[in-house]
Here is the input.
Amino acid sequence: MNKADLIEELADRMGGDHQLATEALENTLDIIVRTVASGESITIMGFGIFEKKARAARVARNPHTGESIPVPPTSSPVFRPGQYFKSVIQGTEKLPEGRLAAKRSSSHQSFGSLTKNGVDHRDKVS
Here is the structure.
């Protein structure tokens, strides 16, 4: 799936408004890029974390000549998937039927089901 496909899917889910879907996606991506570029991270519970990771200066070798080449410090954008996202991809958690996979039902519950290992933990005190 590419950006155009994503916009098409988003527009279908938002009532067919391609302009609104395009603006929503492009503004979301702009916020992520600007926030991470400024050194802050974005955490979306259950989905993942977008952050900037620094890499120290190092010495690399040219594989053809064996010559040492100094590499300056760099920064890269990094995405670390959340536990629910990992569980869905690994097949240990099923996608919910009839509702969004990444919509939280309250600020104190995970994205997925309210069960862990088949046991409902909502009424239990930790």
